[in-house]
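Quick one before lunch.
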Amino acid sequence: MANAPFELKGRSVYVAGHRGMVGSALVRRLGREDVNLVTVDRRDVDLCNQAAVFDWFAKTRPEVIFVAAAKVGGIVANDTLRAEFIYDNIAIAANVIHAAYLNGAEKLMFLGSSCIYPKLAPQPLREDTVLSGPLEPTNEPYAIAKIAGIKMVEAYRSQFGSDFISVMPTNLYGPGDNYHPELSHVVAALIRRFHEAKVAGAKSVAVWGTGTPRREFLYVDDMADACVYLMKTYSGAELINIGTGEDITIAEFARVVAEIVGYSGEIAFDTSRPDGTPRKLLDVSRLAKLGWRARTWLTDGMRQTYQDFLAVSAKSDKRRESCSC
Ligand SMILES: NC(=O)C1=CN([C@@H]2O[C@H](COP(=O)(O)OP(=O)(O)OC[C@H]3O[C@@H](n4cnc5c(N)ncnc54)[C@H](OP(=O)(O)O)[C@@H]3O)[C@@H](O)[C@H]2O)C=CC1
Ligand SMILES: C[C@H]1O[C@H](OP(=O)(O)OP(=O)(O)OC[C@H]2O[C@@H](n3cnc4c(=O)[nH]c(N)nc43)[C@H](O)[C@@H]2O)[C@@H](O)[C@@H](O)C1=O
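Model of the NDP complex:
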């Protein structure tokens, strides 16, 4: 496995999706590096718009690129906004990867997702099982778009010798997550719902599905650290899973949320909602061999995330009050 040191110092580093949960964590982490950070707002460059992307890249010519921009959401968002998930994510991957090649980028990291692996692949999920079986239907459009990005990286490496790499993150959570009640991932969704249940004094709070699926949760600042570490040390063609190597059932996780939020009522399971993939535990042995391990315990990361949620909701309450005039 190629393990080539790559110097970030003094380089122009573009974080696509810099306002997102991962993107903002990358901006925080890169603040500890001596780099020229490059960002551009979505309202100025829509990464689905090829002409706008090519024009901006030709003017800016970033040397290093983290592709952390994507249309992202939880199981219901993926299962209902299927056309948006496949179109946006194929377009973003195609436009940014090709523009990076056209403008001679030194290095690019494409962020895939653990949902690219077959629904029933052997666990823990090894990187070489991609395309070895049917995908989880609820997020197949998103997964296909991510696989397209991965295959583009492979193709540009082989045809043009581009130093482009692909990483496969597990489920992520942390500051900057999306707390939308319907479209979010499970961590942010339950923090919000359990908090609102506590404040309302609700006797019971609903968790989607049966509670039996298992999920692995990586704190987003660990994810950003892993991305910077791999950008500096890895230049291989193989995918690299990024995770903690441990998972938990949704039912057990809901009890962790209740504890962190201070909700003491009943937890009910709404089986009208989908479970999705039964398990998505990543094999992180390649990452460990490259010398990186996750550091943040779930309960510590959850405490930080709950504080982030409280800060975000306080801000939106203020905004509502100020504009209720
Ligand atoms: N969250 C998770 O659990 C996981 C995430 N990932 C991957 O990590 C990456 C980051 O995810 P995450 O931070 O959670 O997602 P977020 O939704 O928090 O951030 C996505 C970012 O992409 C930007 N974006 C989306 N569409 C466009 C567009 N057309 N033009 C320009 N910018 C755009 C958004 O901009 P704006 O805010 O302005 O809309 C946002 O800043 C993605 O590639 C995702 O697939 C992989 C596995 C798990
Ligand atoms: C990162 C990964 O994330 C997505 O896959 P997912 O892991 O299934 O996403 P999720 O976080 O939404 O659900 C995880 C589990 O949690 C259960 N669950 C309980 N209660 C709530 C709840 O209130 N909201 C949500 N969203 N899920 C809930 C839910 O039923 C499921 O069993 C992909 O679409 C794709 O985006 C992707 O790659």
